[in-house]
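wait is this the right file?? whatever heres the structure
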């Protein structure tokens, strides 16, 4: 196992939020940042719900969504640093995030005898709590030999990020679609098509 299930879920959620909230390209298609608080709140809710969390739009206040958006923007920079092999810069950025969010460890239970290490902020508000969790997840990834499992898609005209959970650690693309586009481009180049 590369990361324990909680860290893997934090990292997968971080990747989803980065890809939903930061501008760029997704397989040649423009990705825009949410343009207003309602869009931002909905993008945060949708990004969290894709990983087993059950978050309603009402639970995501505008100030919480803006804080998570700011944290996710910095998380993108961390993943880009990792992708370039610049772990020192990535670590400096994560340390700033950890201080900014006041991330502190806490054991929480999800049933009798089941304890998980979670990270909370000093006030446990939704935005601070999730930002602290994102920062801690990135820190735990950087603190292992598996930091390179976070990366930026290698496909042309795509800058979405990914978490490689494969056994061999060879994932280079954000999606099968981008992997297929890259393979087709190589095939066309070889065969003059």
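ok assuming it is, sequence goes like this
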């Amino acid at each position: 196992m590369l990361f324990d299930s909680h860290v893997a879920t934090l990292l997968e959620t971080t990747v989803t939020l980065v890809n939903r909230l930061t501008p760029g390209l997704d397989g040649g298609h423009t990705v825009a940042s949410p343009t207003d608080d309602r869009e931002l709140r909905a993008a945060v809710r949708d990004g969290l719900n894709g990983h087993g969390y059950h978050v309603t739009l009402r639970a995501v206040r505008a100030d919480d969504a803006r804080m998570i958006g700011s944290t996710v923007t910095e998380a993108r920079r961390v993943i880009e640093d990792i992708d370039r092999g610049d772990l020192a810069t990535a670590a400096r950025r994560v340390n700033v995030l950890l201080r900014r969010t006041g991330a502190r460890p806490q054991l929480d239970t999800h049933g009798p005898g089941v304890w998980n290490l979670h990270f909370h902020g000093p006030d446990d508000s939704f935005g601070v709590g999730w930002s602290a969790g994102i920062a801690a997840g990135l820190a735990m990834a950087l603190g292992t030999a598996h930091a390179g499992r976070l990366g930026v898609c290698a496909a042309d005209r795509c800058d979405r990020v990914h978490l490689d959970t494969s056994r061999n650690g060879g994932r280079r693309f954000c999606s099968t679609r981008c992997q297929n586009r890259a393979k087709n481009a190589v095939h066309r180049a070889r065969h003059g098509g």
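The radius of gyration is 17 Å. so i think its the right one actually
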